[in-house]
Structure formats: structure tokens, C-alpha cells
Write a structure and sequence with these properties.
With 199 residues, the chain is mainly α. It has six helices and no strands. α2 (37-64) packs antiparallel against α3, α4 packs antiparallel against α5 and α5 packs antiparallel against α6. It is elongated and about 55 Å long.
């Protein structure tokens, strides 16, 4: 039963990481084309979640092959701290760029592909969250449950991205992208801080 759940957990991580790769490529490309800080930050966050996913796959595979818990936990802690630092740096980048855009009246263009990827992310994330938490409880894997919180953050980010872009597209609110990006900083920074603290 546990081996079967472990196998399903690895498969769900593969699926999640594959989706994050698609999200990263589409969001980053759309963000660069539309000059949208929101979409670029969304894409960069997806890239960091790819790193987390790959490490968790490695961890689960080690567990499946009977590796020592001490070795796995040590590697996981180091990785969590590194990803946390990257997320904090990302939040600083988003804050500075958003403030510069607000003071300089920087305008983000409409992005249909950006809106579509944000909607799809909002629809897909609950599936990953539920599955990871379910398997994490069965396996008593704190790492798998914690990884589901990355998906929660991703859903929050997708929602923020969507609101910012819709306000800009429908009402021409030039500042919406930058203000929504500043809201986004809270989620990115909080996730990064948790990683650094090792929570």
C-alpha cells in the first residue's frame, strides 16, 4: 500500500513539475512580450517551483530505494533555504520594478496567453494541492505536504495576475499591473521566508 502511494506521489510530482515548466515558459514569454512585471514574476516563481519539484522527486525516489532519512532531510533543508533566498530576492526585484513603473507610469500591454495560463493554473492547482496533501498524510511526509503549499501560493499568484491583467485590459488602468505585483510580493516573500527559516 505504502509503495503504491509512494509511486503515485512520484507521478503526481512529475505531473506538477511538467505543468510548472509549461507555466514558466508561457508566463515568462508573455510577460516579456507584454512588459508585465506580474507575468514575469509568475514565470520566475514557476521556475523555482520546478526546482522544488525536481528535488522532491529525488527525495521520494531515495525513500523508495531505502536511503537513510538523515541524508534526505539534510539535502532537503539546504535546498529549502536556497529556494527561500531566491524567492526573497525575487520579491525585492518585483518591489523595485513595480515602484519604478508606478513612478514612471510604465504600461503593461494586454496578454491573452498570460490570461489563459493564469486561468488554467487556477483550475489545475486545486488538483495538485488535494493529491499531494492526501499522499503526504499517508506517507507521513512533511515535505510532500509542504510542497502542496507551493501550489497554494501558485494559485494565489495566478489569481493576482488575472485580476491585474483584467483590470488593465478592460478598464485601461495603467497602474493595475504594478499594484497587483506589489500584492504578489507578500506571497513570494512569505514563501521565501518560510524556506529560509526551514518551516
Amino acid at each position: 500500500m505504502e509503495n503504491n502511494t509512494l509511486s503515485k506521489s512520484i507521478n503526481i510530482e512529475y505531473l506538477s513539475t511538467l505543468w510548472m515548466l509549461i507555466e514558466f515558459v508561457v508566463a515568462l514569454y508573455s510577460g516579456i512580450m507584454a512588459k508585465s512585471i506580474l507575468l514575469i514574476a509568475f514565470g520566475l516563481d514557476s521556475f523555482l517551483e520546478i526546482i522544488s519539484g525536481v528535488i522532491l522527486i529525488w527525495r521520494l525516489k531515495k525513500e523508495a530505494n531505502g536511503a537513510k532519512n538523515e541524508t534526505i532531510e539534510k539535502a532537503e533543508k539546504i535546498t529549502s533555504k536556497l529556494v527561500g533566498v531566491i524567492l526573497i530576492l525575487l520579491s525585492i526585484y518585483v518591489t523595485i520594478t513595480s515602484l519604478l513603473n508606478l513612478f514612471g507610469h510604465g504600461l503593461a500591454d494586454d496578454s491573452l496567453s498570460g490570461i489563459i495560463i493564469a486561468i488554467l493554473s487556477l483550475l489545475i492547482m486545486p488538483f495538485f494541492i488535494i493529491k499531494k496533501r492526501h499522499y503526504g498524510k499517508i506517507l507521513k511526509s512533511g515535505a510532500l505536504i509542504e510542497d502542496s503549499y507551493c501550489n497554494v501560493t501558485c494559485a494565489y499568484i495566478a489569481g493576482t495576475v488575472l485580476i491585474g491583467m483584467i483590470l488593465n485590459a478592460l478598464f485601461g488602468l495603467w497602474w493595475a499591473d504594478s499594484v497587483a505585483a506589489l500584492v504578489l510580493v507578500y506571497f513570494i516573500f512569505t514563501e521565501g521566508l518560510e524556506g529560509v527559516k526551514g518551516e
